[in-house]
Amino acid sequence: MKSTPRGLIFLALSLYAFQGIAQSDHKKIDTYISQNLDEAKIIGLQVASIGEGQLVWQGSYGVKEYQGKDAINDSTLFMMASCSKPVTSLGIMKLYDQGKMDLDEDINDYLPFRIINPNYPGEIISFRMLLTHTSSLRDNWDVLDPLYTLPEGGDSPLELQSYVKDYFTEGGEYYLSEENFAEEKPGESFSYCNMGYSLLGLLIERISGKSFSQYMQEDIFQALGMTNSYWFLKEIPHDNIARPHEIAPEKEPEVLNHYGFASFPDGQLRTTATDYAQVLKLMINRGKVNGFAFLSEETVDEYLKVQYPEVAKHQALTWNYNEFDAFSYISFMPRYLFTRNIPAHSGYDPGVETYVAFDPKKKRGIIIFINSPLIERRGVRVYHVIIKKLFKEAKRST
After folding, report:
1. What is the pLDDT of residue 396?
2. If residue 293 lies in a helix (H) or strand (E), which one and from where to where?
3. Which residues face 48 on adjacent strands?
């Protein structure tokens, strides 16, 4: 029988002990989430931690539908709401990385119709402005809200190019100059604008020569190994999808239909934490995923740089550095405002709440998808504890 050197025995025992600690640590966060899910009134949840630029832990909890028996698993799709925007912007930044457009070009160079702020007809609107919500375009919720396919459900029947044209060009069905455009010049004010990202989706179509969904599937998702990500319900080949829920005090949760909306590039992505982790890994690893370069380091550096510090001092290209400055977070849990200085994005739509954040210096990131919005203090508190624990899991892997 061969003898085993003492050094190898020590190493094996050390690795065993480390694995035991890691399992114990994962068990702690798993236990916390499992024990607090009902009290926080969370119907279904997916979470993930990224450490050293790699996915190190993920968990799935709850059920796809209130009082249903189908449990959430790691392959269950969640609707992203505005956490779709970093993915849409990734489509633009890939085209930029390939030299197919420039961030400061006039978007009208690529459109079949002209979009201008009628208050400043001589001023251009650039890709950079759209990506940073400084374009002077505005959301008219009197138009956007009724175009959600609630309560009937399903994808919107409206075609993207026609919808964008009708919203931004004079004479269009949804055009209203005083509501759809700011009084300030393009590039001189910040206003979060969903319709700007719908327009970016159309620009992707015009530049790539493909439909938005086709381009994202072929040029982004397939390249990044995102095998379970979709923009339209009609494209999903399975029914493993978390149903959205409305939550109200003293009432039973209301199960909503799977729905869509005309401005879909701004928030309609359905994906998993496993797939979305590829996007955060790409950012953290400066353009590389699983060893191959998808974007240049220079492009990622531009991506994460605050673009108009005098107008929007926390806003990079899509990502922002003050996600937790919102009043609700400050009033509920001020001691957990530890993520304000790292790139992040959140998403809210009927029945869903999402949050993603990452630290490019420490190479850590977190993902949280929920199919029932948080409306009570206890739920928000649990949410923040989960964020804190997810970052701990990411740190523990380094």
Report:
1. 82
2. strand 292-293
3. 58, 367
